[in-house]
Amino acid sequence: MDSSFTLFAAFALQLFIIVDPIAGVPVFLAITPDNTRAQRRAMAVRGCLAAFAILVFFLLGGRWLMDYFAIETAAVRICGGLLLFGISLEMLYGRPTGTGTSPREERLAEAKADISITPLAFPLLAGPGAIATGLIFVEQVHSASDYLALLAASALVFVVTALLLLRADDLLRFIGTLGAAIVTRLMGLVLAFLAVQYVIEGIRGAFAS
Q1: pTM value?
Q2: Which of 18, 73, 156, 158 measures 20 to 30 Å from 125, CA to CA?
Q3: Quick check: 47 and 121 in contact, CB under 8 A?
Q4: What is the distance between the alpha carbons of residues 94 and 144, in angstroms, rounded to a whole number?
Q5: pLDDT digits 0-9 by tens, 127-139
């Protein structure tokens, strides 16, 4: 049980950093300029539910996919670590990450009536970074309680994300664009440390095998 709780806490923290809903608030408001508050709230809920479903698919089917394509754990850690390190650099520099929404996608989203599935759920919330993090943690699962810990952590992160998006207008007024940028940079620094550690563990595992 202690190992499952440790897995829950570690995954919840790292997934929250990757999803980064605080930085997503300004983007969410920018791609819904003509929607009412009620419409925004409905799209936020649908988007978080869809993002949760996407991540659950990879959490439950990730190990099967890796076995099917004969992908070793070391490869997942190295590739995932490199991907997360790239994302962390973008966060540190205060730029939109390449795995998130591009300016073109944001312009297209502004013309859409409903942005809950794309680009909100994917790639803004459950993008490649979140999926890579899920695949890394799947390799640490040894029991049903571990799977439940990952699912519970995912649910917690997207519930918190939904709550933040539901109060997007109030939150942006409270912390401001500068505050969101500062939080994103701090999260990017922590993510950079974690990403490098994943690469080190992946290389160590590759040589050990």
Answers
A1: 0.84
A2: 73
A3: yes
A4: 39
A5: 889 999 999 999 8
Domain ranges for the chain: 2-208
Structure token digits, residue 123: 């790639």
Peptide bond into 128 cis (omega under 30): no
Dist CA 131 CA 58 (whole Å): 7
In this predicted model, what pLDDT tens digit does every residue of 63-101 receive, in sequence order? 898 888 888 888 989 999 999 998 888 888 876 655 555
3-state secondary structure the chain: CHHHHHHHHHHHHHHHHHHCHHHHHHHHHHCCCCCCHHHHHHHHHHHHHHHHHHHHHHHHHHHHHHHHCCCCHHHHHHHHHHHHHHHHHHHHCCCCCCCCCCHHHHHHHHCCCCCHHHHHHHHHHCCHHHHHHHHHHHCCCCCHHHHHHHHHHHHHHHHHHHHHHHCHHHHHHHHHHHHHHHHHHHHHHHHHHHHHHHHHHHHHHHHHC
